[in-house]
Amino acid sequence: MNDKNILSVENLSVHFEGFDRTVVAVKDLSFHVRSGETLGIVGESGCGKSVTSLAIMRLLAKSARVVSGTIEFEGRNLLSLSEKQMRGIRGNKLSMIFQEPMTSLNPVFTVGRQIAESIVLHQGKTYKQALVDAQGLLELVQVSDPQKRLANYPYELSGGMRQRVMIAIALACKPRLLIADEPTTALDVTIQAQILQILKDIQQQLGTAIVLITHDLGVVAESCDRVMVMYAGSKVEEGRVADVLYRAHHPYTQALIRSLPAFVEGDAEQQRLAELPGIVPTITPQAVGCAFQSRCSRAVAACASAAPIALQAGDAHRYWCRAE
Known about the structure:
Rossmann fold; four-stranded antiparallel beta sheet; ATP-binding; ABC_Ni/Peptide_Import; ATP binding
């Protein structure tokens, strides 16, 4: 890992336009990813993690629009590129592992064809040459009998195997940055550990930077260098993993940590996990104050009307709050 930023997101805001209202999915979000590092983005469902990744990939739904901000990848603002220019980057230097491998893989094409497609498109190889590379990629992601798997269809594979195929497709052109959106969702713990180890091994071999999107703080602790905690489309805390997980300052981050069984102390009768009341609110452009204040036990009067302020918790460790 070095100090050069491969990805810089500045003041990104994404809105979804509905029939009767506009919903803010991402609000004034800024973060960076250095070459060769793994950044974890964590938060409960509805916090804007996946929308952020789709904005980076320029794959947002038609109802969504980027209303402000820049997304610089290797010094180029992806938001200013044409779709043709973006296709030259997407799947080539910038790749993504999507959340649901069964719905992301095409059921009518073989595994080999789906992996070979981007190799033919971006590297100019013949289909026969691309299949050879595809077999090597399946070996890299530890798929058993890779030559045979090239002829399989997605429905013939287990969930863990399909996830490995998705990783192989994402790595086909040796990307500089890999976005992994919940790569271990719906997999048992043994397969989860294998998938995370594969990502680590690949990073060491290829020097790929990784953005790992998850709701699982255990995955963050195991796999990431830094972590960014999101709530209601905004960043609430960021820093090195050890700083954020063991010296959390924001009430939301603290609530997430208290909900983990590993952090619950006391005898068996007292080991009830902490609950966070309510749900992530729907944010509109007119919303003011802190989005978390209605669920926060430490909220003060200013939280309802004034935006959170940036506070320094230590070297490279910041959080956004007024309840201090």
